[in-house]
Amino acid sequence: MPAALGATHGSCATGIQEGSSIPGTGAADAGDRTSAAPSSPRALTVLLTVPTLDVGAADEGAIDLARVLAKAGHRPVVVSQGGRFEDEIARLGGVFVRLDTTSHNPIVIARNAQRLRRLVREHGCDAVHAHGRASAWSAWAAARASGKPFLTTCYTGFREQNRLKHWYNGVMARADRVIAVSEQIGDLMVERHRVPSSRLAVVHPGADLGGFDPGGITPDRIAAARSAWGVGPATRVVLFPGRIIRRRGHHVAVEAAARLKQNGLRDVLFVFAGEDGGTSSFSGELWDQVLASKTADVVRLTGPSPDAPASCAAATAIVSAAIQLEGLPRGLLEGMAMARPVIASDLAAGPEAVLAPPAVGEDRMTGLRYPAGDAGALAAALIRLFAYPEAARHAMGQRARAWVLSEFDPEDTAARILAIYADVCAGPAGVAAPPHTEGRAVEPQQR
């Protein structure tokens, strides 16, 4: 692996013309766990594109990447439609530029490409890194026109209903380096777009889990979380963290809750602790399903928790019921860090995240996995988990915490990401092989 980059701003410190930035401020906060690698003689300026800076994997990933770059002495220029966390970019010492990066309109994408090309020139950017397909098309065009390396990060498996959608999604495979956040996402890029191993890197998200420590949660915080849900200490709470959107499979969970209720299982509550963003009718449809299935007494739609660590600690299990391929849901990782057993569909998290039978023995398991979309299998997994003695569930949670802290270390993630930049910025840009022309299955150990 090439040496990771770390430097102070030299010539790259000039030319800040848009947005708000104070290079270097906030980049070395004591609470930031991401560490810089050994110094390199040259700092980089990286143009990052992301649809929004709100909730979601790409949003969080772009902010985390900006933090890694800033702490290593580089300068992120983040182009996005913005959102509630846009001020974080300036706090880190980066530049925020507002642009409609959510549009699928070809005219808007072409106009954005011209704007991004100007930004690359004005800020002296060394690389262009896209998070999200719409912004990736304009970023790809700008990078190629500017002769700069182009990178993409893939957070989820997009649906491909037809050839046009396949072609549209394929922009994520046109990069000089394609970064997948999980083995499953990496395998998907190989299978669908024939990305060769020379251009593919699997880098797990390095979630900062410092606040998710069971030892730091007082009984009062746990009691407050349960009180907000309207349950006492005897109720088994099944927590579903994350956005309430169709691909996360909340409708499958409601069906599983109905099955458990019909089978006479008592003292169980399903808590959907997320927001819907107001961009679809799914939340309304979900509540209609709750009412129709007579599960309003065992299902709560609570919105995001004001104290996520305490909510995890108050839960019996953390579940991700995704019906579309996800990378590695942060809520699942946070639940594991809180020493909670987890249950995940086989599209929500791969075996590198959740250790489950039959892949491992029960003495090593950190949770259970089940076939995505199968409400009966989810109900059966919950019954199986509840059947374990409390001591066995506690041990399962302790193994989950040890696993997530060892395998998803933000310092390791930072070093890997910086090494990728060192590699792509050291050689000529625009030399990536065309997608769909070469590639083979990439074994995990080869990544």
From TrEMBL:
GO molecular function, one term: glycosyltransferase activity
Keywords: Glycosyltransferase, Transferase
InterPro entries assigned to the protein according to its UniProt record, in alphabetical order: Glyco_trans_4-like_N
Residue ranges of domain Glycosyltransferase subfamily 4-like N-terminal in the record: 63-209
Taxonomic superkingdom: Bacteria
Keyword Transferase listed: yes
Alphabetical list of SUPFAM superfamilies matching this protein: UDP-Glycosyltransferase/glycogen phosphorylase (SSF53756)
Protein name as catalogued: Glycosyltransferase subfamily 4-like N-terminal domain-containing protein
Organism for this UniProt entry: Rhodoplanes roseus
